[in-house]
Design goal:
The complex is a heterodimer of chains A (about 600) and B (about 400). Chain A is mainly α and about 600 residues long. Chain A has a domain at about 30-65 and about 370-595: MetI-like (MetI-like fold). Helices cover about 75% and strands about 0% of the residues of chain A. Chain A has 28 helices and two strands. Chain A has helices at about 1-15, 15-25, 30-60, 65-70, 80-110, 115-120, 125, 130-140, 145-160, 175-200, 200-210, 215-225, 230-245, 245-255, 260-270, 275-305, 325-355, 370-375, 380-415, 415-430, 435-445, 455-480, 485-490, 495-525, 530-535, 540-550, 555-580, 585-595; strands spanning about 60, 65. Chain B has about 400 residues and is an alpha+beta fold. In chain B, about 25% of the residues lie in helices and about 35% in strands. In chain B, strand 13 (about 285-290) and strand 14 form a beta hairpin. In chain B, helix 3 (about 125-135) runs parallel beside helix 5. Classes of the chains: A mainly alpha (about 600), B alpha+beta (about 400). The interface of A and B includes residues 20, 29 and 491 of A. The complex binds adenosine-5'-diphosphate and magnesium ion.
């Protein structure tokens, strides 16, 4: 036997080169070419803008240029800007972590859990895009004209016989700004903490209580240490989110005269002529520093602790009975939803229907005029709506299919190179969405691409920006399709492409549809990329809302925000109905997590 | 379809007995090696220098305990796993060769496979599942329906054609998977423990049908199982695998009656064993003298290369032992006492204590003896075998 093998080897050595070439041809199929191209394209979209940012820091127009670095210290009001950002981000993070963790604990560990509410809570930022929410709260709580303030005054004046004409609350203030940040941060904490709590076996807690420790002692000694990684991850996510958030400080911060980094960056690039790129870049560096610091501390937490994260399945969860406190716990959760979603929507709707912004609603004369105005009469708004819807449909479709291709590629090749590519594509958006958007401006608006003010630059930016979310959804969907199902297709003689279209994609459909819906909502409500990359030639809804806000026509503003909210809500509700029926809420939960 | 069935039936007749005449082997595996790297960086030799041939129309079973590398070997042949070194040829065509850097992807190997989980596509009806391999291989549309119905009839569930997998029982799913595997008339079908997920009754029934179908259609089968009864029932040849190596390959009768090692003897059946060492090398008559705790025994030798002093095991099958009250004339006999007597339906079992050891004796249709009775246990010399011990640490 061994002899004949040697003979074979000798013979085969003669045709070495030929066979290599043949094998090459045999393994390259149109689909592998396609998926390589898709992946290369995604990597390019992610890395190139960041590369341009890095280069522009020290090099411009064929020569070294250190103006951006110099601008790190040479900025008017720099220290105020930095302090403002740190205060807003950190304080809102602390409050959000507290609130989010409490609500997660209520829903995961006590008998105060409420089914639908549990599912809806993480979806708040999707039901009501931050830009619409910020405007809603401005309409409710601005000093004089705020609708809710009017109600408060009516009560107070009635009870105490006073005659207040403003206040008692003011959204255009530090607490107001932090309040709106918190509303949009809580769902992230809630998601992460729920997942963390689900991984802690409640028998650990029972054990502790059996040993005589009280409820609070148990929480401090057993539950808390076990969820420290989730807490760390929450803080990191909030710093990342807060540093790049533009819509809320643009609306609320402006009125309160509190400027933060993200707003200044956009202002330097879009509302300054000519755009002050060096200063904007210098501020980008501060954003990267901030997020980097958060990453550093998070990795320290992860490295230090031996956490009782018990993996695996089938933990028994014993719910703590809250007794009379159950109602209190439930009203905390319901109260959050009312404050975060219901009230601002009511505010938007009332102002839109009333025709102008006043605390004295003319209940008998509500009209749809302002809706007609934004939907039919105002040409720019109409274009913006059409653009946003098209961007949402194309962007979400392309994004989710590309993410599915990437997910299957990573799943199949498993290690090394594949994981590296996966991380590469997700990294830039993970550093900071606003920095990535600035990178797009540098990379694609000028030569050789000349995409400034086009539909395409927005589409590309959205793809890069929201790829991490698309990926999380697609990964979850892919992991639900057993490996043997696609292998059976290969064995049946199907090419890789056929296997993808006929087997993998249909089986991932439910999960991908959920991912599609979330992407769509993100893209139509986007303001991060739009504020920098959209213009009068390529208006989108987020950008148009900002413009109308500057122009102070509040009924149109409310109507437009309401339209955006309604479209988002309809898509999300359809998603919820579909996934509930198919029993795939789990994958939706997972995929919002990347948001 | 009908003509092809006829063709393959001829092949089967030819292939099953002989080494296949001048037809090429359906599978030729040479010096195949495959290691896995676990998460903790340890290296698992899942396949360790395997050579294996499957002749046309032959049913070869890979038998071994869980984790010995059976699935990995099957997946390497299917192209789902890439071996480290060696070569694989299917129907005379190289599909893997590490020296040439050649790897043909699964979809070009023209084989069928039945997975342990069946791997039916839940979003397709039975019809679509079975039609899929034909569509993938560009079979003309007109003949697809006919062939799918033919395959469904063959597996005995033509009425399920529009059902979805979730609406079927385990046994029915198994039949759909079988239909999907045979519909494209491939010459090689791979099976990975296909019967391990159905209950015992259905398993027996499916085993019989599978056997019938293979003999009728004449495809070559490479079948993985850890169940020795299944292996014996199905195989033309059984390959017994231990830690990634084929330790013996032969007909079911061969491996049962002429095991080459204690490992094989134990794996394919029940054994009575004596430990011993060789006192004279294998003679011309194929016997070897072994010194054991019961004195010197002349045993059938499983190897010509036994040297004096080699540690061996002497193995005797329980059904080859006979009990008697009076001392028999046979050359190999020991006296002992009945320790237990069991009626097992098809046969009786006696546990006999001989010195420090207990022996099992099985017989059909004999009366149970009383516990404590002194008896003689005898065995014919041709049923006493000296075999190598692969894993001396095992009891
Ligand atoms: N993908 C893999 N990664 C690491 N080790 C593996 C992998 N697949 C199989 N193994 C290991 O290889 C050995 C053989 O596995 P397998 O072929 O599945 O055994 P069998 O089918 O005989 O039960 C086992 O030790 C198993 O743990
Ligand atoms: Mg196996």
């Amino acid at each position: 036997m061994s002899q004949s093998t040697t003979a074979n080897n000798a013979a085969s050595n003669g045709v070495h080169g030929f066979s290599r070439a043949r094998q090459f041809r045999e393994n390259i199929t149109p689909f592998t070419v396609l998926s390589s191209l898709v992946i290369a394209f995604l990597a390019f979209l992610a890395i190139y803008p960041l590369y341009r940012v890095a280069v522009r820091m020290v090099y411009n127009n064929g020569q070294f240029d250190f103006k951006p670095l110099a601008s790190m210290v040479d900025q008017p009001g720099l220290s105020v800007l930095l302090v403002n950002t740190v205060i807003v981000v950190l304080i809102s993070a602390v409050i959000s972590v507290l609130l989010g963790a409490i609500m997660a604990w209520i829903n995961e560990r006590t008998d105060a859990r409420m089914g639908v509410v549990t599912d809806a809570l993480p979806l708040v930022p999707f039901l009501l895009p931050p830009i619409a929410g910020a405007i809603g709260w401005a309409l409710l709580l601005s000093d004089r004209a705020g609708l809710l303030n009017a109600v408060f005054r009516w009560i107070i004046n009635g009870v105490f016989g006073t005659s207040m004409t403003e206040g008692p609350l003011n959204i255009y203030s530090w607490p107001g700004l932090i309040f709106v940040y918190v509303i949009y941060s809580v769902p992230y904490v809630y998601m992460l903490m729920s997942a963390g709590l689900r991984n802690v076996d409640s028998s650990l807690e029972e054990q502790s209580r059996v040993c005589g420790a009280g409820l609070f002692r148990t929480m401090r000694r057993v539950t808390l240490p076990a969820v420290i990684p989730s807490l760390g991850a929450s803080v990191l996510l909030l710093v990342w989110f807060g540093m790049s958030l533009f819509s809320v400080p643009a609306i609320i911060g402006q009125g309160a005269k509190i400027e933060v980094l993200a707003v200044r960056i956009v202002r330097l690039l879009t509302f300054t002529y000519p755009a002050d790129v060096p200063r904007a870049l210098a501020l980008c560096l501060f954003v990267i520093l901030g997020v980097g610091t958060a990453y550093y501390f998070q990795s320290r937490i992860l490295r230090k602790g031996r956490h009782a994260t018990v993996g695996g399945k089938g933990h028994k969860v014993t719910r703590i009975e809250l007794g009379p406190w159950k109602r209190v716990a439930q009203s905390v959760v319901v109260g959050y939803i009312v404050i975060a979603a219901v009230l601002p929507m009511v505010g938007l709707l009332l102002v839109a229907l009333n025709g102008f912004w006043t605390p004295n609603i003319r209940w008998t004369q509500l009209t749809l005029d302002s809706f007609r105005h934004v939907l039919i009469e105002d040409q720019i708004t109409k274009t913006a709506l059409r653009n946003s819807l098209m961007l949402g449909v194309f962007g979400a479709s392309i994004g989710i299919v590309a993410a599915a291709i990437l997910a299957l590629f990573v799943q199949r090749s498993g290690k090394g190179a594949a994981m590296f590519i996966d991380a590469t594509i997700k990294l830039p958006a993970a550093i900071s969405t606003i920095v990535l958007a600035v990178g797009f401006l540098l990379a694609f608006s000028g030569p050789p691409f000349n995409l400034n003010g086009t539909f395409l630059i927005l589409l590309l930016a959205y793809l890069a920006l929201y790829m991490p979310q698309a990926s999380v959804a697609a990964d979850a969907a892919a992991s639900q399709v057993g490996r043997e199902l696609s292998e059976a297709s290969q064995i049946s003689g199907a090419s890789a492409g056929r296997t993808f279209w006929k087997i993998s994609l249909p089986l991932m459909a439910a999960g991908l549809a959920a991912g599609w819906a979330l992407l769509f909502v993100r893209m139509i409500g986007d303001l991060t990329a739009s504020a920098i990359l959209a213009g009068t030639n390529n208006p989108v809804v987020g950008f148009r809302i900002l413009e109308v806000f500057e122009g102070a026509s509040y009924a149109s503003l409310a109507a437009l925000s309401m339209v955006l909210t309604l479209v988002s809500m309809i898509v999300i509700v359809i998603l919820l109905i579909l996934t509930r029926r198919r029993g795939t809420t789990r994958s939706v939960r997972v995929s919002t997590q990347g948001a | 379809m009908s003509t092809q069935v006829g063709n393959s039936a001829n092949m089967a007749a030819q292939g099953a007995g002989s080494a296949g005449g001048n037809k090429p082997n359906i599978v030729e595996v040479r010096s195949l090696i495959k290691h896995f790297h676990r998460e903790d960086k340890t290296v698992v030799p899942a396949i360790d220098t395997v050579d294996l041939d499957v002749h046309p129309g032959e049913f070869v079973v890979l038998l071994g305990p869980s984790g010995c590398g059976k699935t990995t070997l099957l997946r390497c042949i299917a192209g789902l796993e890439k071996p480290d070194t060696g070569s694989i040829q299917i129907q005379g065509k190289k599909v893997f060769d590490s020296d040439m850097g050649l790897v043909v992807p699964p979809e070009r190997r023209n084989i069928s496979m039945i997975f342990q989980s069946y791997a039916l596509w839940p979003h397709m009806s039975a019809f679509d599942n079975i039609a899929y391999p034909l569509q993938s291989r560009n079979v003309p549309k007109a003949s697809i329906a006919e062939r799918v119905h033919g395959a469904l009839k063959l597996v005995g569930i033509p009425e399920l054609v529009q059902q979805y997998p979730a609406q079927m029982s385990g046994g029915q799913q198994q039949r759909i998977a079988l239909a999907r595997a045979i519909v494209s008339n491939d010459d090689l079908v791979l099976f990975d423990e296909p019967l391990s997920n159905v209950d015992a009754k259905v398993r027996e029934q499916l085993r019989i049908e599978l056997l019938e179908m293979q003999r009728k259609l004449g495809f070559s089968a490479l079948y993985v199982t850890h169940d020795q009864t299944e292996a014996m029932a199905l195989a033309h040849r059984v390959a017994i695998i231990r830690q990634g190596k084929i330790v013996q390959i032969g007909s079911p009768r061969d491996v049962y009656e002429r095991p080459s090692s204690r490992y094989v003897a134990r794996f394919v059946g029940t054994t009575n064993e004596l430990n011993g060492s060789v006192v004279s090398p294998t003679g011309g008559d194929g016997t070897v003298r072994v010194s054991t705790e019961f004195g010197e025994i002349v045993a059938q030798s499983s190897s010509t290369s036994f040297k004096i002093g080699d540690k061996v095991a002497v193995v005797i099958r329980p059904e080859r032992c006979t009990l008697s009250i009076a001392e028999p004339t046979a050359p190999i006999k020991w006296s002992g006492t009945i320790e237990a007597a069991l009626f097992l339906g098809s046969h009786t079992e006696h546990v006999v204590r001989i010195g420090e050891r207990t022996f099992l004796e099985w017989s059909v249709g004999s009366e149970l003896r009383e516990v404590g009775t002194r008896v003689w246990l005898a065995v014919a010399p041709e049923h006493v075998r000296a075999v190598t011990i692969l894993d001396p640490t095992e009891k």
